[in-house]
UniProtKB/TrEMBL annotation:
It catalyses: S-adenosyl-L-homocysteine + H2O = L-homocysteine + adenosine. GO terms for biological process: one-carbon metabolic process. The keyword Hydrolase applies. NAD(+) binds at residues 292, 398, 405. Its cofactor is NAD(+). GO terms for molecular function: adenosylhomocysteinase activity. Keywords: Hydrolase, NAD, One-carbon metabolism. It comes from Eucalyptus globulus (Tasmanian blue gum). This is adenosylhomocysteinase.
Length: 470
């Protein structure tokens, strides 16, 4: 399938929505640079030595204004870059246009179909006859998944002549992945194995994708080293402290005339992200109820004065449902949605797209979909004439409706983690330090990310004397 978006007129290969948005994108990138302290410090500290010179980096991460600063930091350190998004709705088209015009190959636009999304992934990984990238920045593991599925299919094709069957899995996106791999097998039957051989490693930022990497490590199928940046202190703690909390309500407030005060809001999951969303909804005046499977998280919610009940207890009473649990399948099912109040709002702030049973909703006999705002749909059931409002088609609401992540909270810390992880993998590529395993971001690199912020924020560290240090 060919991508329907026309190629840009510049020599650099890219597919974005509208290149005329590039000037606006450049303006927003320049404004955001002041909030991206660590990445800007990376440029000034490491740029002159070009430590990433010769490295090919493929990024599969939300293409936002803040991401643009990460891309241009990697370029400033000497790398070549190709990029796609990790979500069909999270792209800021003006940021994508600015990068495509000025800096790197970009393949993404807001509102891709699943087929377009995976074709963009394929293009971002395609570096020509010389193989694929040296390094991958992944958020959700999709680029990593495509290569692993590709290698598995190529080996089966070589050994038995068998082509992958896209109809075999139940997962519709995996069906698309297998179709892409099948279509390319006869043209280049070693394409993904060449990528595997060239790859130095991946840095991964999503919790569920990290769990998948650990599973692959355990069963011996992980093809290249991986650094887990999700569990670094500068990722998890600073996001909670620096402003990720409003992302759920911000997405809701982008829908016209949504009042949170006085509503009953259900937060599915009281992990780090759930805590932030529950607190924000509570501050906005909602009565918050949490659903939880973990007794420790449940106790923490109770100690904050938040009720803990099951979804079945409250499904017909609540006005707003926010799923924060990452990677789980059908936390809110179509049967739950049929029992909800008329015009109850359903959204997902977790990192994956299966938490809300969209396939079940879309295939429900006689259901009507009424779109009344971008990425805002009312689904009406035929037997009751009652409907639910689903935001961003069940995908990340804060990136589907609001404008990106907070720069300092998420992007400066998280993206700097990616940058130092990429540097670590590249600089150690010939030493044997990193094998085909998953590694936590080393503590000294976590501290480096924190330290890179300090000068920009006006801080001075106290230095221990030898006596104090001892």
């Amino acid at each position: 399938m060919a991508l329907p978006v026309p190629m840009t007129t510049i020599p650099r290969e890219s597919k974005v929505k509208d290149m005329s948005d590039a000037d606006f994108g450049r303006l927003e990138i320049e404004l955001a640079e002041d909030q991206m302290a660590a990445l800007m410090s990376c440029r000034s500290k490491f740029g002159p030595s070009q430590p990433l010179k010769g490295a090919r980096i493929t990024g599969s991460l939300h293409m936002t204004t803040q991401t643009a600063i990460l891309i241009e930091t990697l370029l400033a350190l000497g790398a070549e870059v190709r990029w796609c998004s990790s979500n069909t709705f999270s792209t800021q088209d003006h940021a994508a246009a600015a990068i495509a015009r000025d800096s790197a190959a970009v393949f993404t636009w807001k509102g891709e179909t699943p087929q377009e999304y995976w074709r963009c992934k394929e293009r971002a990984l395609d570096w020509g006859p010389g193989g694929g990238p040296d390094l991958i920045i992944d958020d959700g593991g999709d680029a990593t998944l495509l290569i692993h599925e590709g290698v598995k299919a190529e080996e089966a094709y070589e050994n038995a002549g068998s082509l992958p069957d896209p109809a075999s899995p139940d997962n519709t996106e995996l069906q698309i992945v297998l179709t892409i791999i099948r279509d390319g097998l006869e043209t280049d039957p070693k394409r993904y194995r060449k990528m595997k051989e060239r790859l130095v490693g991946v840095s991964e930022a999503a919790a569920t994708a990290v769990k998948r990497l650990y599973r692959m490590q355990a069963n011996g199928t992980l093809l290249f080293p991986a650094i887990n940046v999700n569990d670094s202190v500068t990722q998890t703690k600073f996001q909670n402290l620096c402003g990720c909390r409003p992302s759920g309500p911000d997405g809701l407030l982008m829908v016209a005339n949504v009042e949170i005060a006085g509503k009953v809001a259900v937060v599915c999951g009281y992990g780090d992200m759930g805590k932030d969303h529950a607190a924000a909804l509570k501050e906005a005046g909602a009565r918050v109820i949490v659903t939880e499977i973990d007794p420790i998280c449940a106790l923490q919610a109770l100690m904050k004065g938040i009720e803990v009940l099951t979804l079945e207890d409250v499904v017909s009473q609540a006005d707003i449902f926010v799923v924060t649990a990452g990677g789980s399948k059908a936390i809110i099912t179509v049967d739950h949605m049929r029992k909800m109040k008329n015009n109850a709002i359903v959204c997902n702030t977790g990192p994956f797209d299966k938490a809300i049973d969209m396939p079940g909703l879309e295939s429900f006999p006689g259901v009507k979909r009424i779109a009344f705002n971008p990425q805002t749909d009312r689904w009406v059931f035929p037997d009751t004439e009652s409907g639910v409002i689903v935001l961003a088609e069940g995908r990340l609401v804060n990136l589907g409706h609001a404008t990106s992540h907070p720069s300092l909270a998420t992007s400066s810390c998280s993206f700097a983690n990616h940058a130092v992880a990429q540097l670590e993998l590249w600089m150690e590529r010939d030493t044997g330090k990193y094998e085909k395993n998953v590694y936590a971001l080393p503590k000294h690199l976590d501290e480096k990310v924190a330290a890179l912020h300090l000068g920009k924020l006006g801080a001075k560290l106290t230095k221990l004397s030898k006596e104090h240090a001892d």
